[in-house]
Amino acid sequence: MFLKPSSSIVGPGDAIRLPEVARIVHHEAELAVVMGAVCRDVEREDALAFVLGYTCANDVSSRDLQKADGQWTRAKGFDTFCPLGPWIETDIDPTDTTVQCCVNDTMTQDGNSGDLVFDVPTLIAAVSAVMTLIPGDVILTGTPAGVGPIVDGDTVFVECGGIGILRNPVLTR
Predict the structure, then answer these.
(1) Are 170 and 18 spatial neighbours (Cβ–Cβ below 8 Å)?
(2) 154: which residues sit within 8 A by CB, 6+ positions away?
(3) What are the contacts of 73-76 at 24+ separation with CB within 8 A?
(4) Distances (CA, A) of 33 to 15, 106, 152
(5) Which residues, 6+ apart, have CB-to-CB distance to 41 below 8 Å?
(6) Which residue(s) pair with 54 in the sheet?
(7) What distances in angstroms separate CA 4 from CA 12, 45, 62, 82, 167, one per listed residue?
(8) pTM of the full structure
């Protein structure tokens, strides 16, 4: 479990800006859960009642800084390192949603939320046992195999079935 600052969030079409200090930056396509109600210590069986909906996410990560620091805050917390969108969908099945990523014209990730190590209700229960979740909080669920590098000039497309496509260009600062 880790936190991404609100300043890391950008929307569809916004640029992912590569900081000079980060040498190896990867994309990570993920299904994102958007909370719709306050919850604390929620039971797994009740967790989905607190969800507003779902959207696409790209958990952009600097692998070199992640390794150097031994923790993930700096590596995943840069401004623009959490693209979300293109909108919030309220009517999808979080147990069976495709999660895909293309960099330019090449598919790099092709998975399904049914293959998550921890399902959405389990994630909500685990996070709410540590901290109170409030409306608008976002939980990223994990990424399928195939994460890889992004560089200046790339365009990253994250698609989650039933939601849409999140498109973000990659630029150096």
Answers:
(1) yes
(2) 103, 104, 169, 170
(3) 73/2, 73/3, 75/22, 76/2, 76/4, 76/8
(4) 22, 26, 29
(5) 128, 129
(6) 33, 89
(7) 18, 27, 13, 8, 20
(8) 0.95
Interval 20-55: pLDDT, tens: 999 999 999 999 999 999 999 999 999 999 999 999
Tokens of 67: 């390794």
Three-state DSSP string of 54-108: EEEEECCEEHHHHHHHCCCHHHHHCCCCEEEEEEEECCCCCCCCEEEEEECCEEE
Q: Concatenated DSSP letters for 110-164?
A: EEEGGG-SS-HHHHHHHHHTTS-B-TT-EEE----S--EE--TT-EEEEEETTTE
Greatest Cα-to-Cα distance within the chain, rounded to the nearest angstrom: 45
Read off the pLDDT band of 2 (50, 70, 90).
confident
Q: For residues 39 and 133, is the Cβ–Cβ distance under 8 A?
A: yes
**Angstrom distance (rounded) from CA 111 to CA 131:** 29
CA 60/CA 159 separation, integer angstroms: 15
3-state DSSP call for residue 7?
helix
**pLDDT beyond 80 at 69:** yes
Phi, psi angle pair for 23, to nearest 5°: -95, -30
